[in-house]
Amino acid sequence: GQNIDQPTEMTATEGAIVQINCTYQTSGFNGLFWYQQHAGEAPTFLSYNVLDGLEEKGRFSSFLSRSKGYSYLLLKELQMKDSASYLCAVSTDSWGKLQFGAGTQVVVTP
Amino acid sequence: SAVISQKPSRDICQRGTSLTIQCQVDSQVTMMFWYRQQPGQSLTLIATANQGSEATYESGFVIDKFPISRPNLTFSTLTVSNMSPEDSSIYLCSVEGGGTPSSYNEQFFGPGTRLTVL
């Protein structure tokens, strides 16, 4: 079967750093995505990793280790608007089919 | 980036009826995907729609319940047939890429259709 696991919820204060871990076991692997989803809205793309290592994009960074089936999303200098659900998704074929984790609800407090 | 629109944005339907959801993309794309997001849950892939061929359904989803059309490279429809309250969900379409190498691996989602079945 396919398993994509991430924590249910994380809480952090404004200005802090939060790391959201994702572990996966899938039948195919063509890259790992992170999405942000605010309540009542569609997911928006944050990052894509297909090779091992760290990808940095402003306040957000994403890391991948294919041998360990592990990724993390790092959110730095947290802002109140970062309160949202963060979805880890694995592309399981070359056509872009995605399997999603259950999502991690990040709550940023003042 | 690809811009995706969906119609309707929301609907309330009676049990036993059917609803067709439209997805329009502003650029030609090979694959379109339909997802369901039930209340409080993450996204589940329903099917992959390729222009000119039958859609490919994921385990637990069948064509009779969720027929899909893909008449051209910018448009697709998903029908939720013979609805029951368990079909109450948000239905989203998505596409891969935006036509440029840097956006090839990005996936873009439509705004979703919020369906409530009474």
Key words describing this protein structure:
heterodimer; A: 110 residues; mainly beta; 6-stranded mixed beta sheet; 5-stranded antiparallel beta sheet; 0% helix; globular; B: 118 residues; 7-stranded mixed beta sheet; 4-stranded antiparallel beta sheet; 11 strands; 50% strand
Percentage of residues in DSSP E strands of chain B? over 45%
Q: Give the largest interface pair and sizes.
A: A-B, 21 and 21 residues
Number of helices, where a helix is a run of at least 4 consecutive DSSP H or I residues of chain B: 0
Pick out the low-confidence regions of chain A. none
Mean pLDDT of chain A: 93
Q: Roughly what is the average pLDDT of chain B, rounded to an integer?
A: 90
Q: Please provide the ordered H/E string of secondary-structure elements of chain B.
A: EEEEEEEEEEE
Class by helix and strand content of chain B?
A: mainly beta
Summarize the biggest pleated sheet of chain A: 6 strands, mixed
Number of strands of chain A: 11
Task: Report how far apart the termini of chain B are.
Answer: 37 Å
Give a short account of the largest sheet of chain B.
7 strands, mixed
> What is the subunit organization of this protein?
heterodimer
Total DSSP helices of chain A? 0
